[in-house]
Design goal:
The protein is α+β, with helices and mostly antiparallel strands. It has 2 domains: about 30-100, Trypsin Inhibitor V, Chain A (2-Layer Sandwich); about 100-130, no CATH class. Helices cover about 35% and strands about 20% of the residues. It has a 3-stranded mixed sheet with strand order 1-3-2, with helices on one face.
Length: about 130
C-alpha cells in the first residue's frame, strides 16, 4: 500500500499542532485549594497567590462572610477590556456555606446525625473551631 505524500504531511502537521496545544494546557497554573477554609483565610491565601477571590454563591445567612466555609472553587481568567493594554485577571470563584456549624431549633446548620455536624459539635465542646 502506498501513502500519498500530501496526506502524510497533513497528518504530521496535525500531530504537531495537537502536541503544541496540549503543551499549553499542561502548563496551566491553578489557584491553591481553599475548600474547607473560612472565607477570610481563603481570600488571603488566594490574594497572596495572585488570584482575585470572587464570591459566586452563598448558602445560608447565619455567619458573616469572613466566617463562612468555602465548599467549592473554580478558576477563570477574565480578559482585559477591548482596546486596552491591560492583562487578563486571574479570578477564583468561590461558593460559601454560611449556615451555622450545627443546627439548632432556631438556626439552620449541619445535623448532629451527619459527619460534619458531629465533628462541629465535638470541636465546639472541646473549645476548638471545626475548620481548624
Amino acid at each position: 500500500m502506498t501513502t500519498h505524500p500530501s496526506l502524510a504531511a497533513a497528518v504530521a502537521g496535525a500531530v504537531a499542532v495537537a502536541s503544541l496545544a496540549g503543551a499549553g494546557i499542561a502548563d496551566a497554573k491553578s489557584s491553591p485549594n481553599v475548600v474547607g477554609q473560612k472565607y477570610g483565610d481563603a481570600s488571603s491565601t488566594l490574594s497572596s497567590a495572585g488570584y482575585k477571590p470572587v464570591v459566586s454563591t452563598t448558602v445560608g445567612d447565619q455567619l458573616t462572610w469572613s466566617n463562612c466555609i468555602v465548599y467549592n472553587q473554580k478558576d477563570r481568567s477574565v480578559p482585559p477590556p477591548p482596546n486596552s493594554r491591560g492583562s487578563p485577571t486571574n479570578q477564583t470563584l468561590l461558593s460559601l456555606n454560611c449556615d451555622a456549624p450545627v443546627a439548632s431549633a432556631t438556626s439552620p446548620g449541619n445535623s448532629l446525625g451527619s459527619t460534619e455536624g458531629r465533628a462541629a459539635a465535638a470541636a465546639a465542646s472541646a473549645g476548638a473551631s471545626p475548620t481548624g
